[in-house]
Amino acid sequence: MKILIDNGHGSNTPGKRSPDGKFLEYQYNRIIATRVVSELVDCCYDAELLVPEEIDVPLRERVKRVNDKCDIYVATNILLVSIHVNAAGSDGKWHKATGWSAYTTPGITKSDLLAMDLYEAARKNLPGKIIRQFNGPQEPDFEENFYILKHTKCPAVLTENFFMDNVDDVRFLESREGKNALTLLHIEGIKYYMCLHY
User: Fold this and answer.
1) What is the DSSP letter of 40?
2) Is the pLDDT of residue 137 over 80?
């Protein structure tokens, strides 16, 4: 199976930063995505970064890259995880919203199975942290028609890894503990999916 890890946004994406401007989402997404790919490859998985470029690659191009892989390897042999950091507002102020969450498209698909496995890994690797759930443990993932999820042919999940406009979340995200926990939960969630559903 080909594992595609999408690091959301780029150096030229407007906004997408903490209110003080010190935390840049694209930079953080790249750190976690690169670590996930590297460790999966070290474990002999076929994983790659979807967007090696520093600048933002448009969603249409990201989707094309995924679907080109689907055409080569068959969509059931591809999975996509898009890594992001959430924000509670766009007003340039600090907020209190916190927690980890994952998104799929509406309806029941194999993406829901991947999301369930990522939630399982999140509960294990984020003790004491809030895991945001749509409808409890049996239906935890939120559903939205995000472009990267709606238009790709393979199972796809978008993760929102805490909030860049929450002071405590930013402190956790930037810590060694936070980076290790988020890297590990993505790796373990993907491995669960591979063992249980592929």
Assistant:
1) H
2) no
Structural domain harbouring 55: 2-197
In total, how many domains does the chain have? 1
The residue type of 95 is H
Q: How many whole angstroms separate alpha carbon 47 and alpha carbon 181?
A: 19
| Prediction pTM value | 0.97
CATH number of the domain residue 77 falls in: 3.40.630.40
Q: Would the CA dihedral through 82, 110, 118, 71 be positive or negative?
A: negative
Quote the tokens at residue 71.
């055409």
Residues 59-106 have pLDDT tens digits of 999 999 999 999 999 999 999 999 999 999 999 999 999 999 999 999
Give all strands of the β-sheet with 142-143 in edge-to-edge order: 46-49, 2-7, 78-86, 156-163, 100-104, 142-143
